[in-house]
Design a protein that fits this description.
- It comes from Pseudomonas haemolytica.
- Residues 35-123 form the ABM domain.
- One of its GO terms (molecular function) is monooxygenase activity.
- By secondary structure, this protein is α+β, with helices and mostly antiparallel strands.
- The protein has a domain at 41-129: Alpha-Beta Plaits.
- It has helices at 7-18, 48-63, 92-100, 102-114, and strands spanning 35-42, 68-75, 82-89, 120-124.
- It has a four-stranded antiparallel sheet with strand order 2-3-1-4, covered by helices on one side.
- Strand 2 and strand 3 (82-89) form a beta hairpin.
- Helix 2 (48-63) packs antiparallel against helix 4.
- It is globular and about 45 Å long.
- 12% of the residues are buried.
Length: 129
């Protein structure tokens, strides 16, 4: 039985689909840009280590996904418990596949207990090499 998605996860996936300007149009399918983003995750008081452990558990399996290009976790030096996941996926289908993986779904099921506010996903456009 699948766990129902949290409202913030629906919003996250909608943002990933609707808000990403790197989606190809019908006329522009020759060069598809990867989806690059920063996920911002802020731990509830007392949940910093649990959130960190949950995020670290995503690293290895996500990097093994065929469409993953980058997946690196950072913690804000001056704000312990605030994490940034730098992530890049080959395309929207790869990101959608990531959201549907059992390990991401397990993490999503615990997020309400760990996060002080909804996960924020910021999409980026690369402007330099």
């Amino acid at each position: 039985m699948r766990t129902p998605l949290k409202p913030w996860l629906y919003a996250l996936m909608f943002t990933a689909v609707a808000g990403c300007s790197s989606q190809p149009t019908e006329r522009d399918t020759t060069m598809q840009k990867p989806l690059v983003s920063l996920a911002v995750l802020k731990a509830k008081p007392g949940q910093q280590q649990a959130l960190k452990a949950g995020l670290l558990s995503l690293i290895e399996p996500t990097r093994a996904e065929p469409g993953n290009l980058d997946y690196v976790l950072f913690e804000h030096r001056d704000e312990p418990g605030t994490f940034y996941m730098r992530e890049a996926f080959k395309d929207q289908a790869a990101l959608d596949t990531h959201f549907a993986t059992p390990y991401f779904q397990r993490f999503a099921a615990t997020a309400d207990d760990l996060l002080s506010e909804p996960l924020q996903l910021i999409f980026l456009e690369q402007v330099s090499n």
